[in-house]
């Protein structure tokens, strides 16, 4: 029986805010004590994680003095160097402070927009000091409940200007960040700007330096929007924009649950892992989730271990899927090739178009073909349920 014990080669990461989540929710107080950053680093290293990610204020309180900041960062760096854990990604908290209650980069107040840039640049300095190469931008408060203010187009322009500015700052400082936009449809705002992977991809094309920008898609976020996460990730991969990924789970149509990876939709999780493994995704696999509010500290580590273990089990299942002769025969039978027709459809030429228009098709036969998907899906389910 394989142990499914991760090593740093698996590149699993957690946020300080994930395993550090004390169980507070809109209806109730924290249910477990806050754990300090160096302790979290040591525990994650013990469990076989590769790295740890952070918002500026997960580590340094928003009102810390320069001396306090340096002491806190020093202790954190010591834990990193003791354990070998790295910080591949950093981000800014642009959602907790009341200053950001109506948006950060998209606030209607120019002073808030300027403060958001100021705070993000300081946070980028911290991330660079810790070695981060990916900078995530999750616009948690970038949205509205009320559209009467009439800022929809302005908000997009302000957002664009801010991202262009930050990209220039990164280049001017020599940080070389790759920025990853993280779409989410709602929560904490009623309607968040750039709500899905597709929206973010469209927006990136309008930036001054689109090559510096990609996606940090999250399983729960596309699921909240009623969309398929594997489909969204495939589109990001197709565009060369899968810069980072947030793994967790979620029931569709519910509040933002941040469940343990694979806990709710193991089949979608399987097709996601298969997609990442088949396409050679080499970035960090970040678990942006937290233990249930019911849990104590032991539950937190059971949660973290479970996220990684489930990924590794699904990775093994993906390999089994590729080696299963009956499954592969069904996959092969699903696809129909026709060399003669492909020669006509592969490249446009007036001759090909004329020849294709002149062809006749047996529509009834096309419509009558059974592609074998019921049988293939059942084989997949049996594989996942462990009877193959
Ligand atoms: C959420 C988001 C956040 C971001 C994090 C990093 O739903 O709250 O997923 O957890 O991922 O702020 O940018
Ligand atoms: Mn989320
Ligand atoms: Mn996230």
TrEMBL record:
It catalyses: alpha-D-xylose = alpha-D-xylulofuranose. Keywords: Carbohydrate metabolism, Cytoplasm, Isomerase, Magnesium, Metal-binding, Xylose metabolism. Mg(2+) 1 binds at residues 182, 218, 246, 288. The keyword Isomerase applies. Mg(2+) 2 binds at residues 218, 221, 256, 258. It comes from the Bacteria. GO terms for biological process: D-xylose metabolic process. This is Xylose isomerase. It comes from Deinococcus arboris. The gene is xylA.
């Amino acid at each position: 029986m394989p142990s499914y014990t991760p090593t740093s080669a698996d590149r699993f990461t957690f946020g300080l805010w994930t395993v550090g989540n004390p169980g507070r929710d809109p209806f109730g107080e924290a249910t477990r004590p806050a754990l300090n950053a160096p302790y979290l680093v040591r525990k994650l290293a013990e469990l076989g994680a590769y790295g740890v990610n952070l918002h500026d204020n997960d580590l340094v309180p928003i009102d810390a003095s320069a001396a306090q900041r340096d002491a806190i960062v020093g202790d954190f760096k010591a834990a990193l160097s003791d354990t070998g854990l790295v910080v591949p990604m950093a981000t800014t908290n642009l959602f907790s402070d009341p200053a950001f209650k109506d948006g950060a980069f998209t606030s209607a107040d120019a002073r808030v927009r300027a403060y958001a840039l100021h705070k993000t640049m300081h946070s980028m300095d911290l991330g660079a000091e810790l070695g981060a190469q990916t900078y995530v931008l999750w616009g948690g408060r970038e949205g509205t409940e009320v559209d009467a203010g009439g800022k929809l187009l302005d908000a997009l322009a302000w957002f664009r200007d801010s991202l262009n500015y930050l990209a220039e700052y990164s280049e001017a400082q020599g940080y070389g960040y790759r920025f990853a936009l993280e779409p989410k449809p709602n929560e904490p705002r009623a309607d968040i700007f750039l709500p899905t992977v597709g929206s973010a991809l469209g927006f990136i094309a309008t930036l001054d330096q689109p090559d510096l920008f990609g996606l940090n898609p999250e399983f729960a976020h596309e699921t909240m929007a009623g969309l398929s996460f594997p489909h969204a990730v495939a589109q990001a991969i197709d565009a060369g924009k899968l810069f980072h990924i947030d793994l967790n789970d979620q029931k569709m149509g519910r509040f933002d649950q941040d469940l343990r990876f694979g806990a709710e939709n193991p089949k979608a999780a399987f097709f996601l892992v298969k997609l990442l493994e088949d396409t050679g995704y080499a970035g960090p696999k970040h678990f942006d989730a937290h233990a249930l509010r019911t849990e104590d500290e032991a539950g937190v580590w059971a949660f973290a271990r479970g996220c990684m273990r489930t990924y590794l089990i699904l990775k093994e299942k993906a390999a089994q899927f590729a080696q299963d002769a009956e499954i592969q025969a069904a996959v092969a039978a699903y696809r129909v090739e026709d060399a003669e027709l492909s020669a006509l459809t592969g490249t446009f030429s007036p001759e090909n178009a004329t020849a294709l228009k002149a062809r006749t098709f047996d529509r009834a036969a096309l419509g009558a073909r059974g592609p074998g998907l019921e049988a293939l899906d059942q084989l997949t389910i049996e594989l996942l349920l462990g009877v193959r």
